[in-house]
Specification:
This protein is mostly helical. Among the domains are: about 90 residues, no CATH class; about 40 residues, no CATH class; about 120 residues, no CATH class; about 40 residues, no CATH class. It is about 40% helix and about 5% strand. The protein contains 21 helices and seven strands. A three-stranded antiparallel beta sheet has the order 1-3-2. The chain has a two-stranded antiparallel sheet with strand order 4-5. Strand 2 and strand 3 form a beta hairpin. Helix 3 packs across helix 4 and helix 6 runs parallel beside helix 8.
Length: about 500
């Protein structure tokens, strides 16, 4: 295997050098994933629930790309046998449909259901644990050990689950008794649900929403500034948690996580305090125009981006310091945003929208080679709008239109010609503010946001057909009916069959 590094000096392994290694690993040619495969499958089976977003996940044919699962291996055996590998993209797309048709009657995962029937049902033909419902109509109820009604939605089960999921604790015996006596059990569930959304467990510091944000913000105490600062205080990630939580609560627009041109402060809510923002769980979140200071106690925790150049969490000081660091072309910053807020992992060959004549390789990192170009033709133009925002470079995390001139000595003269305009989802954008707007209004953002909550509440992605249908309805309504309001979406989620069936 051959590894190529894009970064020169990095600020420790914790700051993301492993990401670069993953992005740039050149897979063996015989197992290379094809970015056009998901779309080709959905052209052949457009009615499949797996294609609800227009293309299937790469894990339909791969275990971890580029490694194939059993379904992928069956397709590989039927895909233009005898033709030299690697296949050209045009040949691959032409042969794939014939290969898919050839394996329709087979049962790749050995679960007793043909590959075609699994695709039609929306289950995974390469995963034995993903299998269509039998539709036998038989149902044994209740489960003796717990007494739940497993033939449909069990409201007593929902009440207990709402307490656990949103308040962080089981209901008391007395609360269960009171619920059992309720004339309107659905109303009692909704009352408890809404109370829990204002609890410390849900919205408070280190609560459920903060924990959901961990993988997006990637806190590292060693370089934290502000309260609880580390030995090298560079930025305060608490500000990022404030913004994330605020965007998810009350009647706030979840797209503000990428679009906000305001910051959010959090303060303890005292009896005599007049909170003008969102309160609950003993805290008050408030929109503000500026944050932080430069004191001995807080460290340098200022936010330096001019309001017109702000793009929510993407331009927060922590996000830029931690992910951009010293890099001229902030590939890791763009890839993290793509993964964390749009649910697309370029390292897994997801969300590839190749741009003609890319990658241009302005920083001479050898990304035009065959093993790299397939990803970098998407990643590099995705990164260009981030290139005018400093990471660990004065002014920290601020916008600097002439920033790239400072990199000429180390990166070569072409680095100063990196455009600020980029491309996301095949659409050209002039700058990061436009990039964030396209991202926030995309289907991918809605799908990823709803999926975050689905995995939080269920512990896994939707797999069974009923769950897939519930999930698709939720993310589509999240854009329209619920107008990107998380709490309205959650109110609908807890009323689904998937949530209410034990």
């Amino acid at each position: 295997m051959k590894f190529r590094w894009h970064w020169g000096l990095t600020f420790g392994m914790a700051a993301g050098s492993l990401l670069a290694l993953v992005f740039l690993w050149k897979p063996p040619q015989h197992a290379q994933a094809q970015p056009s495969a998901p779309g080709a499958l959905c052209q052949l089976y457009p009615e499949s629930p797996l294609c609800s977003s227009g293309s299937v996940a790469c894990t339909t044919c791969h275990s971890t790309p580029p490694a194939l699962n059993d379904f992928g291996r069956q397709i590989q055996e039927k895909l233009l046998p005898g033709q030299p590998r690697p296949l050209k993209s045009a040949d691959f797309e032409q042969g794939l449909k014939d290969a898919l048709k050839a394996v329709e009657s087979m049962d790749a995962d050995g679960d007793g259901v043909s590959n075609l029937d699994e695709l039609k049902a929306g289950t995974l033909p390469g995963n034995a644990s993903s299998k269509p419902d039998t539709g036998s109509g038989s149902c044994k109820k209740p489960v003796d050990k717990y007494g739940w009604d497993t033939c449909g939605v069990d409201l007593r089960y929902v009440f207990k689950k709402v307490n656990l999921d949103f308040c962080g604790k089981s209901p008391t015996y007395e609360a269960i008794e009171e619920f059992d006596k309720s004339a309107d059990k659905k109303a009692a569930i909704m009352t408890k649900f809404k109370a829990c959304l204002d609890s410390k467990y849900w919205m408070g510091e280190n609560g459920a929403l903060w924990r959901m944000a961990h993988s997006k913000i990637r806190p590292l105490v060693a370089i934290k500034s502000g309260p609880g600062a580390g030995p090298i205080p560079l930025a305060d990630y608490n500000h990022d948690y404030y913004l994330f939580t605020y965007s998810q609560i009350d009647d706030h627009d979840a797209r503000d996580i990428l679009k906000a041109q305001y910051y959010v402060s959090m303060a303890p809510l005292k009896d005599d305090a007049l909170c003008k923002g969102s309160q609950g769980g003993g805290v008050c979140y408030t929109e503000v125009d500026s944050l932080g200071g430069n004191t001995r106690d807080e460290g340098d925790s200022r936010q330096n981006t001019a309001k017109s150049r702000r793009a929510g969490i993407l331009t927060m000081r922590w996000n830029l310091v931690f992910f951009t660091m010293f890099n001229a072309v902030p590939r890791a910053t763009a890839a993290q945003a793509y993964r964390a807020y749009l649910g697309l992992d370029i390292a897994r060959m997801e969300g590839l929208f190749p741009v003609r004549n890319e990658p241009a390789d302005y920083d001479n990192k050898d990304v035009r080679t065959a093993g790299c170009a397939s990803c970098h033709s998407t990643l590099d133009p995705l990164s260009y709008p981030f290139s005018r925002y400093n990471g660990i470079r004065a002014p920290f995390a601020g916008y600097d239109g002439a920033r790239l001139k400072a990199f000429v000595a180390n990166e070569g003269s072409r680095i100063q010609y990196v455009p600020e305009a980029g491309v996301i989802f095949g659409k050209r954008v002039a700058n990061l503010v436009e990039w964030a707007d396209v991202a926030a209004n995309s289907d991918q953002f809605a799908r990823a946001t709803v999926l975050d909550y689905w995995k939080m509440l269920f512990g896994h992605k939707p797999i069974q057909p009923t769950a897939l249908r519930d999930y698709e309805t939720l993310w589509r309504n999240f854009k329209t009916t619920y107008n990107y309001r998380v709490e309205k979406m959650l109110e609908a989620l807890i009323q689904t069959e998937a949530y209410g069936a034990p």
